[in-house]
Amino acid sequence: MSDGPRVSVIVASRHRPNWLRRCLTALRQVDYPAFEVIVVADSESQASGEVSSLKWVRFDEPNLSRARNAGIAASAGEICAFIDDDAVPEPLWLAHHVEALATTRAAASVGFVRGRNGLSFQSRVTSIDREAETHVEEDRGEQAFVPRLSAGRALKLVGTNMAVRRDILMSLGGFDPAFAWFLDDADLSMRLCHAGHITAVAPLAEVHHGFGASVRRTADRVPLDLHDIGRSSALYFRRHPGVDVSELVARIEIRERARLLRHMIDGGCEPGDVSRILRTFKEGWQVGLSMPLPSLEPIGKSPDAFVPMMAVPSGHEVLTGRLASRRGLVEHASQLVASGQRCSVFSFSLTNRRHRVRYVDPGFWLQTGGQFGRAERSDPWIKWCRFAYRKKVEVRRVANVRGIREIVNGAGHKTREKRDIGGVRDA
């Protein structure tokens, strides 16, 4: 993809400099020839980050939509891609979004999101309706596609993994600033649909979402305040009318109470917290019903020049070994990253421990678990296999999202040598 369209990656961050630093490290390893990174963040986060080859927009308001719109206004690419500060993209993230937009001629695309264990999917193919209900839709494999949806539904964009053609996004006014947080991406999904635009699914455009703590929730996703959920829910039904609001608010309250009770049972909150937090939902709901709705004006084009990211050259090193050699693998991977290369480490013990994938300092992918352990939820509890077979299966699973070409074509054409470290022979 040497001559692909220019992409502006927009990251909004507020008071989470450590998460932002991790996200930016992964963005520097994205394998795409022409992209810029626009960071919309508070002064504390700006002071902790590198300035070179990044566009910084100072913003310190608790409004994610306004922050993203500030990033859109500063963009100079043909496509705007979005990722959260507590997420990291796979190396071919942008390449797959761009390919999806090109092959389907869509206005927007949404990728897949993996959860904190790096394997289970947090989000794949879903739609949204006027009742703000999310529906799971058919998954058609790795190729980009436009799903068929029931009447009244729009393919749901996910704010931490989506791309939109900039001219269309600007013409729609970007994100609705009334949605400070929650349902901002759902609202944009509906507006794109109502305007007659197509949204595509880009299955291989993957990000890993970590759920950083914020003023709204803990790192374990326990809600601290539901004001914005109540407020945005009321606003959504006003922006997209035609539903029985009284029935819907009762349904949402039941859902949020059940969620809090689950966290209480798990020890995430105290019994007295449930009623207090639910009151914040009701307060937010009343604010959302009474506040004025701002008009959405087109966003003007930026006079700023495109600032290309100084990314890592194409290629991906793969290091594999057993538990005994993990320290050596990690040290070698760190050296490769320091020399400006991408790297994935696969380190398996002689057990059936479940697998986990992490993006770790100083910036490489680490998959751990047992040689006989589960990776996917559909896997058996014990997978009897040789070490050589297991490492091949796991490397092949991520090859198309990381650009590990010797595994993709299966014909021995290697871009980087795949090796074992530590002197341990395959079982």
Explain how this protein is built:
The protein has twelve helices and 17 strands. It has 427 residues and is an alpha/beta fold. It has three domains: 7-209, Spore Coat Polysaccharide Biosynthesis Protein SpsA, Chain A (Alpha-Beta Complex); 227-290, no CATH class; 317-420, no CATH class. β1 (7-13), α1 and β2 (35-41) form a beta-alpha-beta unit. α7 packs parallel to α9 and α8 runs antiparallel to α9 (271-290).
Summarize this entry quickly:
It holds the Pfam family Glycos_transf_2. The protein has 427 residues and is an alpha/beta fold. It contains twelve helices and 17 strands.
Indicate the topology:
Elements: E1 7-13, H1 17-27, E2 35-41, H2 43-48, E3 55-58, H3 64-73, E4 79-84, E5 87-89, H4 93-104, E6 108-114, E7 121-123, E8 126-128, E9 134-136, E10 154-155, E11 162-165, H5 166-171, H6 184-194, E12 199-209, H7 227-239, H8 245-265, H9 271-290, E13 317-322, H10 326-338, E14 343-349, E15 356-360, E16 364-370, H11 387-402, H12 405-409, E17 418-420
Parallel strand pairs: 1-2, 1-4, 2-3, 6-12, 13-14, 13-17, 14-16
Antiparallel strand pairs: 4-11, 5-12, 6-7, 6-11, 8-9, 8-10, 15-16
Helix pairs in contact: 7-9, 8-9
